[in-house]
Amino acid sequence: MLRVTLEQWRMFLAVVKYGGFNKAAKHIHKSQSSIHHAVSKIETSLGLNLFDVEGRTLHLTDAGHTLHRRAEYLVAEAGKIETVGKGIASGIETEVKLAVDGIFPQDILGAVLESLSNQFPDVRLELHETVLSGARELLENGEVDIAIGGQALTKGWNQPLLEIDFVPVACPEHPLARKDRSVTYEDLKSYRQIVVRDSATDDSKDDGWLEAEQRWTVSHLATSIRMIKSNHGFAWLPISLIQGPLDRGELAIIPMSGRVSRTASLFLSCKDWDGLGIAAKACAESFIDTCADDPRQWQDAPVLAEAG
């Protein structure tokens, strides 16, 4: 059984905040005697003094300083519990689960998640970083609320978001980057390609141009980039993720003949738009709105596309 109530700690904090019993009483609308009684109850229950009195001025004792820090944390956490409880009662979920393909632009992802945190500070986020069909698989298995990936749901709610351009890149010292003529697809076949593995566990597959005789398969885009920087091979990578290394001369676009880039489309998907919680729906809307202002957006995309 706790000897000190939460309300008594609140009154103690008010005395510290407003610098005295009389001022605290006016601000929190309690009688001065009830606040005196609350602080005295804490001191009696714990067997220590919280304040020293010098003239008409109150000063926290060493013990008072220590308990003040703890009491602030305690009251703040109690406030969060109440906020979560109200959120649950109003339909705000406690957690948003999100799967995002690794090729999705990190600047947009960061902005959306920051917005979600500001709007719903007590809602937890579980982010799965996926490759190829991994996002769709997690959504179909009910492990996430929202998926952003290159494959729309056959039966569900889908919104086209962005088109991501891929370019063939290698280390500047790689033979493909140093050729004195345009590189053909036949040339690519003679060199090692770094491929990122599909993160889906069922029916996983690799994607893109895969005709190189030599191939190394990795699990993360970051690993692919590191290998290419170290001159272990070439890869097709999203230009939005490698602009920095390109600008710094750590990577080079392979000078291909004809069209250099290829494009992948990204969708935002969920099983049922109306079934999303308040925070998840706000998160999805933020992705849609932010991508709508991005030059990589789909042109003439439908606003709310329903598949199936």
Describe the structure.
- By secondary structure, the protein is an alpha/beta fold.
- The chain has 3 domains: 6-90, Arc Repressor Mutant, subunit A, CATH 1.10.10.10; 95-162 and 265-307, Periplasmic binding protein-like II (D-Maltodextrin-Binding Protein, domain 2), CATH 3.40.190.10; 164-263, D-Maltodextrin-Binding Protein, domain 2.
- The chain is 41% helix and 22% strand.
- It has helices spanning 6-18, 21-28, 32-46, 62-90, 106-119, 134-140, 175-178, 185-188, 221-229, 239-247, 278-292; strands spanning 51-54, 57-60, 95-101, 124-130, 146-149, 156-170, 193-196, 215-218, 235-238, 252-253, 262-270, 305-307.
- Strands 3, 4, 5, 6, 9, 10, 11 and 12 form an 8-stranded mixed beta sheet that branches. A two-stranded antiparallel sheet has the order 1-2. A two-stranded parallel ribbon has the order 7-8.
- A hairpin with a 2-residue loop joins β1 (51-54) and β2.
- The protein is elongated, with a radius of gyration of 29 Å.
- It starts with 5 loop residues before the first helix and ends with a strand.
- The model is unreliable at 299-308 (pLDDT under 50).
